Amino acid sequence: MSATKLISAYILLLLVSVFFQRTHAVGNAILEVVSDSGQPSTDKYCIQYNDQYQQLPKTLENASPLNLKDLSDIEGCDLSEYRGHQISSHHTLVAVMRGNCSFTLKALIAEAASARAVLVVDYANSSLTPLPGGNKTEYGALNITLAVISWHDYQTIIHSGGQVRVSLYAPSRPRWDANMMFIIFASTLLVMFGGVWAAYSEEQAWKQRSKVRASSIDTEESEEEGLPFTVCGVLIWFAFICTTILLLYFFYDYMVYVFIALFCIVGAHSLYRCLLPLWTRIMPINYDIPLNRLPCFKSKANLGSLILLMPCLTLGIFWAVERHASYAWVLQDILGACFCVYLIQNLRLPSLKIISILLVMLLLYDVFFVFITPLLTSDGESVMVSVATGGKGGSKESLPMVFLIPLFGDSPLYMCRERSYSLLGFGDVIIPGLLVAYNAVCDVRLRRGGIHNGRTLYFIVAVAGYLIGMVLCMVSLMLMESGQPALLYLVPCTLIPTVAMALCRKELGLLYRGHSRISADSQDTVESQVGAGHVQEGRAEEEEDEDENGIRANEHLEEQMNLIS
């Protein structure tokens, strides 16, 4: 497939994703209890309305206060239900229970009963407040405001006592929050740090191999070429990932505790591995605890490493215990950052071919579970968003596989969000980070092998592409006002510049075949340089021998002439 066809397919995929985003309207508004003095109140509640066909005032000052009439004991599906319930004035908002008729029918009957607005109270066991349905024709027949409120919020309002006056208004939806800049630069730094660590490890390994070759010419070279991943292995891994997210969607209340336990252990181990190089420099303790002194240890344990392991494991357990606390997001982000960096540095795939297949498949996976699954689920919500925001069950647990970044703004509509955080999945850092780390290792091998003198060409291109991809993702987030699959932007922005750079330098074959091919070509280059050096040395020795023979011949000739004379 040509590059033009690939770019066209990507643009088509992007346009399809935009279409699916635009077909879902979300209208958040604020119901505020108005005090007797008319001053702004602290009692604010989130309500849902259909912003495609109805308009609400933008500010509280422009909203007219309405008297709340509690009719939550009826469904309001028939005008006869309003008998016995006198509506005192046209400045009345009636609250009815959600029932077996449509939202627009409730609004039409409430309007016939002289109400100014109708507030539909959701079911008590509902986990997500619905958006009022209906089409343009149905809303065109309405002259009153229709909104929906959660059962819990409504119970709080009516139990405040006395006559309640409320105002409905819809502030401008915040498209941008300052935490977006933090997400962009923090994720880029994590990817960059993982790549630098991978390059440093490769540099040290190269020096070690050079020492081995120098000490023994006949020693066979054994290199770690990364994980033995094949195309079949990638397909199996991809199937495992798809199965996992489906299990999370259908059995979230059970699977989430498995992931909490795994994250506690893996996060503590990653923190330990990230701190270990620095710790060994600060605390160079070389004492090894003898065997059979510690349980669960089959080999000697280093005392210094054990001292570091204990607080790391304690921090992981502390997060698991305090994961619902207001400060738990800090611990989760620290453990998650160490997990991403360690995995990027340690999980090295063998070739650009394998990485490209993996990245493209995960891009399609991300797009499918974000954009396509809303067409297949009963509630119209994507599987990815449902899993990332806590599932449909009653466990109230969050999946600890995302970064939580608090919102920095103060918009009233932030209270309509289920969480006051922005989310970034670990996969959005790890998956492109594998390509960044691969490029960093390739730079080291190409430089050490003398194939080119560039230092970090492929690494810089991949990091810059990741930064651009994150910017594009945030711009799309602001324009579409909905969660985005970040890999839709990160994969092309990192993979395409890498391939373009390799084509320009005529090194695509080396990167495509992988580290082993780069090492082999690098070794051939070194050997050819060494062989050329031996030839030059041989010629120099021959010239020196010829000079010495000439000098000796001249000396012998002079001796003969002296004897004759």
UniProtKB/TrEMBL annotation:
Residues 75-151 form the PA domain. It is found in: Endomembrane system. The keyword Transmembrane applies. It is a multi-pass membrane protein. It comes from the Eukaryota. GO terms for biological process: membrane protein proteolysis. Residues 522-565 are annotated as: Disordered. One of its GO terms (molecular function) is aspartic endopeptidase activity, intramembrane cleaving. One of its GO terms (cellular component) is lumenal side of endoplasmic reticulum membrane. Keywords: Hydrolase, Membrane, Signal, Transmembrane, Transmembrane helix. The keyword Oxidoreductase does not apply. Gene3D superfamilies: 3.50.30.30. Residues 1-25 form the signal peptide. Residues 549-559 have a biased composition (Basic and acidic residues). Its main location: membrane. InterPro entries: PA_domain, Peptidase_A22B_SPP, Preselin/SPP. The chain crosses the membrane at residues 180-200, 227-251, 257-280, 301-321, 327-344, 356-376, 421-444, 456-480, 486-504. Belongs to the peptidase A22B family. This is PA domain-containing protein. The lineage of its organism: Eukaryota, Metazoa, Spiralia, Lophotrochozoa, Mollusca.
